Amino acid sequence: MPAFRIAPAVADAFPDALIALVTAVGLRGREPWPHTTTALEDLERQLADGTWHPADETDPRVEAWHTAYRSFGTNPRRIRPSVDALGRRLAKKGTLPRINPAVDSYNAVSVRHGLPAGAFDLDHVTGDVDIRRADGTESFTPLGEPDTVENPKPGEIIYADTTGVLTRHWNHRDAHRTRVTEDSTHVVFVLETLHATRDGDLLKVAAEELRGLLTPHTAQTAVHYLSPAHLQATT
After folding, report:
1. If you ran DSSP here, which 8-state letter would residue 193 be given?
2. Per-residue pLDDT tens over the stretch 123-163
């Protein structure tokens, strides 16, 4: 089982960060997930009738990520944090994408709570995973672009294993190699906040909500947390 670690330099720069790791073993992605379907449809219905709107860049939860992106040299209006991009897409189209049940589940939880989310197929992760600043030599192949290779900018915050980069710009986009498909059986889902003193309880609610969507379709789930006070967790 890989360990996830926050590098001390990242912990120092973001002392109020909190990251939830929701692991699922024995995931069954090819069966119907009715609770996830309902969660997506409920959000879309609430948006349509005006009783709820996704968080945008004026919301403190998203604004914090814009500030963080600027701190490591990324323009967050050109390369948006994942939760910002997902909320904008939902607000514009009125629907969320349907990818596969596992991905749809974390998308629903992410946009409902205004927190970035992602996932990695652990069967395609090599070694441990570090949340650290890039040195510029690492390679990244974006999700859906298997023939593309990018190099993160030095100082950019990335998730990286011993083979390469799993996410660029902290949470903007996941890698193709570790993408979650209907056939993924061992997955770690990630939920993040930069303001645990304000939103830590919200993050924990979101993690348990995601776990609830996963539990009927997996053999085992667990939740671990990373923070500057707890720099490492084994999934």
Report:
1. E
2. 999 999 999 999 999 999 999 999 999 999 999 999 999 99
Q: Please name the helix (run of DSSP H) or strand (run of DSSP E) that holds residue 90, with its range, or none.
A: helix 82-93
Which string of b and e fits 115-145 if b means at least 16 CB within 10 Å? Answer: bbbbbbbbebbeebbbbbbbeeebebbbeee
Cα–Cα distance, 20 to 209 (Å, whole number):
12
Angle 222-81-97 (CA atoms, 0-180°, nearest 5)? 75
CA distance 135 to 139: 11
Average pLDDT, stretch 36-49?
98
Residues 6+ apart with CB under 8 A from 102: 24, 27, 29, 119, 180, 182, 184, 187, 189, 214
Q: Which of 206, 200, 207, 187 minimizes the C-alpha distance to 228?
A: 200
Give me 156's structure tokens.
């950019």
- And the tokens for 181? 């498909």
- pTM (two decimals): 0.98
Q: Are 147 and 78 in contact (CB under 8 A)?
A: no
Amino acid of residue 127: G
Q: Give the count of beta carbons closer than 10 Å to the beta carbon of residue 159.
A: 22
DSSP assignment of 4-58 equals EEE-HHHHHH-TT-EEEEEEEES--TTS--HHHHHHHHHHHHHHHHTS-----TT
